[in-house]
Specification:
The chain contains six helices and 15 strands. With about 325 residues, it is an alpha+beta fold.
Length: about 325
């Protein structure tokens, strides 16, 4: 009896230590990554009229460089395609993942400690070409929750995003999820003050803004493998509801207020495992609790940094 009582308390303490210790570690890692990204970009000779989102997410260098063949941003600074990295296919024999990471752009190296290892089953999508036989399992290094999205303001642009839960429909009488979760996609790296990256003043008649400022934000959907999510009850002090939030991706909708919609590219692209901390097409995860699939404890971490642009073309 004494052991049973102490074990519950010990587990809760251990779960809190692991969860919030990892949360602080990720926060520090992301803050350092945001600071390095802003500082390095402030000293990168890009067009005075360049847009920060084009610099990060546009594969066409002519939008941010006078040299149409300039690939320096992705090769030395940041490559979004490395946010999901197939270690099974891309780590040479005799090398470790650390040997490969050392060759990555500087911002990707800074984000590496916050990434996770995820075994996934490859599936055949339209246009794919998987070999016959059982579906292969690949080991991925993955920026948690990262999903490729289409930018409505620039349909040709692919932006890797993470989900931000903006609302949940809950039955007040029982405090159980009633219908759906509503999410909005936010880019992994986004401009903190849109329009400030360009050093060119806005045209006459438009709203004034500050120019030449590298003000960016790094977003990360932190989720706990040891604690479940509970909706807070109204009032003060806030108290958790008596029921954990159920995990049902079929009831998730994407808010129409955002600029981004998710898609799966053609070819061999993987869905996340049926159950896991970051599983599902939206990366919201699920875990077992009292025989029910529930959401893990989740917080969207957003770390910011701002530098004045020192060099430009």
């Amino acid at each position: 009896m004494e052991f049973a009582l102490l074990a519950i308390v010990t587990y809760m303490i251990l779960a809190a230590i692991l969860t919030f210790g990892h949360l602080l570690f990720c926060s520090q890692t992301l803050q350092e990554a945001a600071d390095v990204a802003a500082r390095e970009l402030a000293h990168t000779p890009l067009l005075a009229t360049a847009n920060l989102m084009d610099v990060f997410w546009n594969s066409n260098p002519s939008s941010y460089s006078s040299n149409p063949n300039d690939t320096s941003v992705r090769t030395a600074f940041f490559d979004p395609n490395l946010l999901q990295f197939d270690m099974t296919a891309n780590v040479p024999a005799g090398q470790s993942i650390l040997d490969v990471v050392k060759t990555w752009p500087v911002v990707n190296q800074m984000l590496y400690p916050a990434m996770i290892v995820q075994p996934v089953t490859m599936v055949l999508q339209p246009g794919g070409n998987l070999p016959p036989g059982p579906a292969p399992v690949h080991i991925y290094l993955w920026y948690p929750g990262a999903v490729p999205c289409t930018d409505s303001t620039s349909p040709s642009r692919t932006v890797w995003c993470v989900a931000q839960v903006v609302s949940r429909t809950i039955t007040p009488a029982t405090w159980v999820e009633d219908q759906q979760e509503t999410i909005e996609w936010v880019p992994v790296i986004e401009e903190m003050q849109p329009g400030t990256f360009s050093v060119v003043p806005p045209q006459q008649g438009t709203a004034p803004t500050q120019q030449g400022l590298v003000a960016l934000r790094v977003n990360y959907g932190y989720q706990s493998a040891t604690m479940s999510a509970y909706a807070p009850q109204p009032g003060w002090p806030p108290q958790p509801t008596p029921h954990a939030l159920e995990a049902d991706d079929s009831r998730v909708t994407v808010a129409t207020t955002g600029n981004y919609t998710n898609y799966s590219p053609s070819g061999a692209f993987f869905p996340q495992s049926p159950t896991g901390t970051y599983s599902g097409p939206y990366g919201l995860g699920s875990q077992q609790a009292w025989g029910t699939l529930v959401r893990p404890f989740r917080r969207l971490l957003s770390m910011q940094a701002a530098y004045r642009r020192e060099v430009f073309q």
